[in-house]
Write a structure and sequence with these properties.
The chain is mainly alpha-helical. The chain contains three helices and two strands, in the order E-E-H-H-H. Strand 1 and strand 2 form a beta hairpin. The protein is elongated, with a radius of gyration of 17 Å.
Length: 55
């Protein structure tokens, strides 16, 4: 597959990008295109606003 102007096997791209092959497969299965799947996906909580409590 081609990414960043170079053609390599998908497993090799996963290794280069520091992504587990299984994670790349799941990203593709969930509908991401190759560019999205090989990019950084941030995990974690979304900001919910103020976290301070009123005294």
């Amino acid at each position: 597959m081609m990414f960043a102007g170079q053609t390599r096997p998908a497993k090799e791209w996963a290794l280069i990008q520091g992504i587990k092959w299984q994670a790349l497969r799941m990203r593709r299965y969930r509908g991401m295109n190759w560019s999205e799947a090989l990019g950084e996906v941030r995990r974690g909580r979304k900001p919910t606003g103020s976290t301070s409590k009123a005294a």
